Amino acid sequence: MAIVPHPRAPIHTPTLPFTGRRWPSRVYPGDLAQTSWVRSDLAVDLARLAGLAKETGEDIVLCASEMFANACDHSRSGQDPEGRGIRTLNMPTATTVQVAIVDDGVRADSIEPKGPEIPHQRTPEDWEEAERGRGLLLIHHLAERWGSHSILDFPFCDGLGTVIWAEFALGGARS
Fold first, then answer.
1. What does the alpha-carbon distance between residue 164 and residue 52 come to, in Å, rounded to a whole number?
2. Which of 3, 48, 150, 158 is at 20 to 30 A from 12, Cα to Cα?
3. Is the pTM above the cut of 0.90?
């Protein structure tokens, strides 16, 4: 019997964007060492989206890694040995991609539950010397919109977890 070569099928076929599209959520251990997996998995998921500008894809990956690092640093996701971070990816509109990270909630050593905020109490000299604390500023400048909210909107559920999200225009044009 002769072996007949068959043309290789493409590894993936990019799909057209559509409102409401969702990718499967991905769960990662709450360890900063997992950030590289968050980045690579997200890059693979975004590669399947037709029409996404390369620069926008890179911005999304960078912002998601910053959000994941914040979850590991500032929530139970990174404090608890069983802590986790969940990455979601969806399209609220046909021209917008939203990435989000869900953390495990307020750390035991935290005094008061609150969402992430850009630090404003630094002088220009303090910013020059700071090695940390620029992640949310980076997200603020790269994303079209971003924000955070509690995973459950009930007063008695404060501190159970925070969702931080960022939206990006599909074509990459920032307003």
1. 22
2. 3
3. no
